[in-house]
Amino acid sequence: MTFEILETSRLKLRKLTPEVFDFVFTNYTNEELKTFFGLSTEQELEKERIKHEKGLATYNKSFLYFQLIDKSNDTVIGGCGYHTWYLDHFRAEIGYGLFQEQHKGKGLMTEALLPIIDYGFNTMHLNRIEALIGPENTASLQLVKRLNFTREGYLRQHYNHNGQIVDSVLFSLLRSEYKG
């Protein structure tokens, strides 16, 4: 299988779709899967396997995810993409993260998000990109503001984070506002 790759100055962004997950889980060994996903433990791999087995997409909802691969050493350092893509409504929720602290605060997520947002509007034909962020996540709040997302609201007791029900701040970026 050939993987679609977007490139930035420091990163390769490898596109993952439901079809890619089907292929790698069918054809890769456990060690190859851990390397492919940038996982270090069997528990992390089992979590990915369960998500795949339970189904990551339905007839009207899907995902499109990009792995962040450091060009200097070809290792997966994080991910970014659209984990809740409502096909019928041309909108998706964006999510992102870096696996290790050593990669944070270097502008890598901004570097990754710019082409991924562009991909969302111009290739996926999204009209709206949403970001739901914990109110204490200062770095992420600053990131979406820098990228011209608009704060829309505050969702009380919105999601489960490590056994705690926590709030979210809702941001969005519309196609008509995008200055790509």
UniProtKB/TrEMBL annotation:
One of its GO terms (molecular function) is protein-N-terminal-alanine acetyltransferase activity. SUPFAM superfamilies: Acyl-CoA N-acyltransferases (Nat). Residues 11-176 form the N-acetyltransferase domain. InterPro entries: Acyl_CoA_acyltransferase, GNAT_dom, N-acetyltransferase. One of its GO terms (cellular component) is cytoplasm. Keywords: Transferase. This is Alanine acetyltransferase. It comes from Flavisolibacter tropicus.
